[in-house]
Design goal:
This protein has about 130 residues and is mostly helical. About 65% of the residues lie in helices and about 10% in strands. The chain has 2 domains: about 70 residues; about 45 residues, no CATH class. The chain has a two-stranded antiparallel sheet with strand order 1-2. The longest helix is centred in the N-terminal third of the chain and has 70 residues. Keywords: Coiled coil, Signal.
Length: about 130
């Protein structure tokens, strides 16, 4: 019978302390969640301010082309200079490279007195000593 009383006593003590451990665990979980919520709210605030700053920067950058257009209108002489530069007959492979040619091959260039066909090798660097 004493054995039975001991078991009952231990069972009652276990039941008495069990809810407090569950409550303590619940309190710790609540504190962890509150801490996580606080960190997340702080991060959201940071991200919102970053978004606002980026939106202002985008608005500023969108206005730049408009400012350039207003400040530097193209004149007829500017257009004529560009047209003349793009229609100029090249005198060398280097001129062709400067005009944007990148494919090696036969090209017409202006010689001393007439137009000549030359082979330009654009696969080599412009300052390559083995270049002919």
């Amino acid at each position: 019978m004493t054995h039975f009383v001991t078991i009952i006593t231990l069972s009652i003590l276990a039941l008495a302390f069990w809810p407090t451990s569950v409550i303590a665990s619940s309190d710790e979980t609540h504190e962890d969640l509150a801490s996580q919520l606080s960190r997340m709210e702080s991060k959201v605030t940071q991200l919102e301010s970053l978004i606002t700053a980026l939106q202002k920067e985008v608005t500023r950058m969108k206005s730049i082309p408009t400012q350039i257009d207003r400040n530097s209108p193209a004149t007829e002489s500017d257009v004529a200079a560009v047209r003349q530069a793009t229609t100029k007959i090249p005198r060398s492979c280097q001129d062709l490279r400067c005009m944007g040619q990148i494919i090696s091959g036969m090209y017409a260039v202006m010689g001393n007195t007439s137009v000549e066909m030359v082979f330009c090798d654009f696969s080599k660097a412009p300052n390559d000593p083995s270049k002919l």
